[in-house]
Amino acid sequence: MIDYFGYVDLLIRCFVDSMRNAITIMGIDPGYGITGFGVIKVSGSKLECLDYGVIRTLKGEDFSQRLKYLYKDLQTLIKKYNPDLVAVEELFFFKNVKTAIKVSHARGVILLTAIQAGKELVEFTPLQVKQAISCYGRADKLQVQKMVKTFLNLKNLPRPDDAADALAIAICASNCHRVS
What we know:
Elements: H1 4-20, E1 23-29, E2 34-43, E3 46-56, H2 63-81, E4 85-89, H3 97-116, E5 120-124, H4 126-134, H5 141-152, H6 161-179
Parallel strand pairs: 1-4, 4-5
Antiparallel strand pairs: 1-2, 2-3
Helix pairs in contact: 1-6, 2-3, 4-6, 5-6
């Protein structure tokens, strides 16, 4: 994790770099059963989708094994795309405490994997992501998918929802970079 001034410094460096070179941002929507990922390239104000999808773990598998699979698959993705920045959605609200705890464990694995890879991290609440994508913090899943499709000039709506959310998180991070 980086502090506020470190984050501002990172944003400025990435903005300056983006004027010269493209930067790659990986967005991650945490989960222990399904974790969404989206990778975009940012060149100035141009956004390009490099890849998106989900990491799935087996439902009947021991929970610690599921976390291990998440760790290994995320390591592979980070090595493949070598993102300059990893953006992760923060946990905001869960009705089911047991689910929240398990998602928190998965989120911890995600953060640790990115840190071990030497990647800079930024985090956004779901409200921040929705506002960045649609200017409306209560946008529904379909609205987010449509906006992601528009921003990235995709032929189809990104699916599943977890992958679309991960792309939205990456776009949110890119918006912060351009504003800096």
